[in-house]
Design a protein that fits this description.
about 45% helix, alpha/beta
């Protein structure tokens, strides 16, 4: 410790550089890094612990706890019509918007101080809109959002668009290019395109999750919500058997209670006889309100057209928009790679204990005073898994 906090010898600088190189992967998602190292076998000397009295700048420059640059100020991108819609349907008042985000931020810091989460206004507004600006429900949704990522490593480890390229190439999912008359974009899912010999079912879930992360970036989608069109044509018993109660509970838990996206309608078409068995597995985990949003059309396209007009549907579903194009959305997601990784911070696995240790900030050896003095800085950090 005396070496690190005192003399600037060549040996000390070399050691510090080696340490930074070793730990860089743990910190590249925050753009700036913790570079303070505490020797667990030694206690800080009185002079060395001066920064714990409230002035982090008392440390040498190379050893200060540095926060990343603050995110840019929130700027609303909603049209006047959507602002009015958000106010009517979501209880969002423009003049109170930032105050509401601050209220949720304060709740997080008070009730879940160790939660690794973004705290900027734009991110928190996703959860407030999804729960109609009910602070308690928005906080619960945020906690569920992060809990699902921690408890399902098969889905969230190394989660990035390039990792799901084979799912995108299969045509399992895509987005229609135009929204419906209510401004809701339509996510098309085709389980029949998935071959269980190609990859496990969790890869499909990963693709759906990344798609939702892309969609929720748009404030327009946050207000309008989205529509799902699930085409079960060609689904065999072997595919349906992959979705057991345990898997169904996790998937529904994310879509219903663990993601800040309003799913307004789920249109099911071309469902085979075995779909009754599939829905029997899913239904116990659905809330009554969500159950009512499932609409089964069978092979009756005229029934589908009552919910989604032919003018925005592809030829495969009796529409006038040409053949279904899955390439455009796949390219959009793959182009989303760097942005997704920077925001979602998947450099380290959610189960990486070493990363969790460092992300929690100063250790017990640093003392409670250090924890208090750095709290104001840590609250500005973008934590990640």
């Amino acid at each position: 410790m005396s070496c690190l906090f005192g003399r600037e010898t060549m040996k000390a600088r070399k050691y510090l550089q080696e340490y930074k190189t070793k730990e860089q992967n743990l910190w590249e998602c925050t753009q700036q890094h913790y570079t303070m190292e505490v020797d667990p076998n030694k206690s800080p000397k009185a002079g060395e612990n001066a920064s714990c009295n409230g002035d982090a700048s008392a440390l040498p420059t190379d050893l200060q706890l540095q926060a990343p640059p603050k995110p840019p100020p929130y700027v609303c991108t909603l049209s006047p019509q959507l602002i009015a819609k958000a106010q009517e349907e979501l209880q969002e008042k423009p003049e109170w918007r930032l105050r509401d985000a601050q209220a949720l931020r304060d709740m997080i810091l008070k009730e879940a101080p160790n939660l690794k989460t973004r705290l900027d206004d734009a991110f928190l507004l996703r959860f407030l809109r999804a729960r109609k600006f009910d602070y308690d429900r928005a906080l619960k949704l945020l906690l569920n959002y992060h809990a699902s990522q921690k408890t399902w490593p098969e889905v969230f480890s190394n989660l990035r668009p390039s990792a799901i390229k084979r799912v995108l190439d299969s045509g399992f999912l895509t987005m229609l290019p135009r929204p419906d008359p209510l401004g809701r974009y339509i996510l098309v899912i085709r389980p029949g395109r998935w071959k269980i010999s190609d990859y496990p079912i969790t890869e499909n879930i990963r693709a759906i999750y990344i798609t939702l992360e892309k969609l929720v970036q748009s404030e327009e989608n946050q207000v309008n919500g989205i529509v799902i069109l699930a085409d079960y044509g060609g689904v065999a018993l072997s595919q349906a058997a992959q979705l057991g109660p345990f898997m169904a509970k996790k998937v529904i838990g994310i879509l219903q209670d663990g993601f800040p996206m309003r799913i307004k309608t789920v249109n099911i078409i071309n469902e085979p006889i075995i779909f009754k068995g599939i829905f029997a597995i899913i239904k116990p985990f659905l809330k009554e309100k969500m159950t009512e949003r499932f609409v089964l059309h069978g092979s009756d396209l005229s029934s589908l057209h009552k919910d989604i007009p032919p003018s925005i549907l592809p030829q495969e579903y009796g529409g006038t928009m040409g053949k279904l194009n899955t390439t455009a959305w796949a390219e959009s997601l793959l182009a989303f790679e760097e942005e997704f990784v920077a925001e979602f911070c998947q450099t380290c696995s959610p189960t990486d204990n070493a990363h969790a240790q460092y992300a929690d900030g100063p250790t017990e050896q640093s003392g409670q005073q250090c924890e208090d003095s750095f709290r104001g800085v840590r609250s500005q950090l973008y934590y990640c898994y």
